[in-house]
Amino acid sequence: MGFYRSLGGSMGPYGALDRGYGRRRRGPAPHPPSLPPPPSSGPAPIADVFVTSRTDFRAQLRRCQRLLGAGGGSAMGRPTTELRLHGLGLAVPRTINLALQLQAAAHGALWLHASTSSVEEEEEEEEGGAHRGRHNSAIHIRVCREAPCA
Amino acid sequence: MENFRKVRTSEEESPLPFPDLPPDVVEMKVKEGSKIRNLMNFAMAQMELKGRRQIVFSGCGRAVTKTITCVEIMKRKLGGLHQVTKVRYKTLLEVWENQDPLPGGRAQNLTVHKNVPSICILLSRDPLDPNQTGYQPPEPRHGMEPQLGQPSSSCLFFPHRMFRSLLSRRCPQGLELG
């Protein structure tokens, strides 16, 4: 301890010099990390959401609202302008519900552009080794913040 | 609520969300228990034998998937159909009746308004306005099917299915290791 006392009594193992370690700083960092500037051109950010019937509905709704809200497309540095919801089979009614709930929460300021398709699912092989294709219905809803997205 | 029993369910009538439709257009109201075979027999007869140019499929709740299935079957069979899809809520009125008799002897009814997601799809042989929301142009005919290595449009939406599809096409017996 004599060594630390010779340094003024404030630089001991738990003194002023050590106090900085393991403590959370308050206020802005002296040198904030520099981020690359957001791209000014290029395609508008579009987010795809695959709706399942097992995920909690409110969680899916929150995720979509976060993606559509300000800073939703943070990876690109710009907010997402369009959301594409995809639902397959049993998840189709839930996908429609999700899109309509998003539209209602935005007070009708969102445009919904729905389209349908069928997806071929291959089942287990039959005895002869032949494949029997089975189709399942799917829906794709584009949720746009700006007018027509057709 | 355990003493209540649902006695009746009715739908609120709402006009079709497609303007400029002829008054005699056929509307196929798809229900949860409808048979696809019965629906398609009637709808195909209307389109082929009676020569109708437009038909509407509508369904709500758990019948939405069946509605889309009917539309996809019709598009595949007829080809060259223009489509407009609209989604909205439909209000169902459920009447629940109290099982416990009231002192007055009259039944106590409870009416519940329930909003369920619904879909309305218009199929038309004639071209429709491509700028309206929900428009879907006819798909190319069967000779334009994508080859192996070129994913179909549905595979683009569900990439995991594309992987499975390619795997099973290339290796029908499964993966051979060694």
UniProtKB/TrEMBL annotation, chain A:
Domain of life from the UniProt record: Eukaryota
Family affiliation: Belongs to the histone-like Alba family.
Organism from which the protein derives: Melopsittacus undulatus
Name of the protein: Uncharacterized protein
Alphabetized SUPFAM superfamilies for the sequence: AlbA-like (SSF82704)
UniProt main location, coarse: nucleus
Start-end of Pro residues biased regions: 29-42
GO biological process: tRNA 5'-leader removal
Disordered as annotated region, ranges: 1-47
GO cellular component: nucleolar ribonuclease P complex; ribonuclease MRP complex
Automatic annotation (TrEMBL), chain B:
Domain of life: Eukaryota
Gene Ontology process terms (BP): tRNA 5'-leader removal
GO annotation, cellular component aspect: nucleus; ribonuclease MRP complex
Entry-linked Gene3D superfamilies: Alba-like domain
Region spans: Disordered: 1-20, 127-149
Annotated Basic and acidic residues bias: 1-11
One Pfam family matching this protein: Alba
Keyword Nucleus tagged: yes
Location of this chain's protein in the cell: Nucleus
Gene Ontology terms, MF aspect: RNA binding
Keywords linked to the UniProt accession: Nucleus
Family label: Belongs to the histone-like Alba family.
Protein name per UniProt: Uncharacterized protein
Gene: LOC101871841
